[in-house]
């Protein structure tokens, strides 16, 4: 079995427009690995890396939306996308829209490093909190709890032809998150 070196085998940097093709690839690969059996197969199988790349290229050009990338020796292995909350929330709280890590790179500490990089950037931009909507059926949601986020709201989201319960995980104290 492959044992990663003690020093982190990745680094974090802001993502840019040259990353969008790989971002599309990572998003589709991660959705198919994570949501198979939760979101209907037709939706997952119909996802397009190109469509996702275009969507994220457009989002990247929008004002106030930011990206952090996790990169190893072979290139991009994960990303986080964040910015202003899409729904009314108390002032000073930003939203983590997306956090996706290639299945092969999960469990390396990259997710935690990306969230901390996002939290640091949000803090520098004057925010004091960060939240993310997570599907209730997502087996990875324990990751948010492990990093100290608490469920602050519940909602529903339509994906494909089905409604799914989602939970808003909130970090109300960014310095505390950064220090973890």
Please estimate the helix content. Answer: 25-40%
Mean pLDDT: 94
Q: Walk across the major sheet and give the strand order.
A: 1-2-3-4-5-7-6
Q: What is the helix/strand order?
A: EHHHEEEHEHEEH
Percent strand equals 25-35%
Tally of contiguous helical segments? 6
- Give start-end ranges of low-pLDDT stretches: none
How many strands, what sense, and barrel or not for the largest sheet? 7 strands, mixed
Which shape, going by the Cα principal axes? globular
DSSP strand count: 7
**Integer-rounded radius of gyration:** 16 Å
- N- and C-termini, Cα separation: 28 Å
Structural class: alpha+beta
Key descriptive features of the protein:
alpha+beta
Topology:
Elements: E1 11-14, H1 20-35, H2 41-46, H3 49-61, E2 66-72, E3 75-84, E4 93-101, H4 110-124, E5 129-135, H5 142-146, E6 150-159, E7 162-171, H6 174-178
Parallel strand pairs: 4-5
Antiparallel strand pairs: 1-2, 2-3, 3-4, 5-7, 6-7
Helix pairs in contact: 1-3
What does this structure look like?
The chain has helices at residues 20-35, 41-46, 49-61, 110-124, 142-146, 174-178, and strands at 11-14, 66-72, 75-84, 93-101, 129-135, 150-159, 162-171. β4 (93-101), α4 (110-124) and β5 form a beta-alpha-beta unit. The chain is built from 6 helices and 7 strands, in the order βαααβββαβαββα. 33% of the residues lie in helices and 32% in strands. With 180 residues, the chain is an alpha+beta fold. The longest helix has 16 residues, at 20-35. The mean pLDDT is 94. The protein has a 7-stranded mixed β-sheet. α1 crosses α3 (49-61). It starts with 10 loop residues before the first strand and ends with a helix.
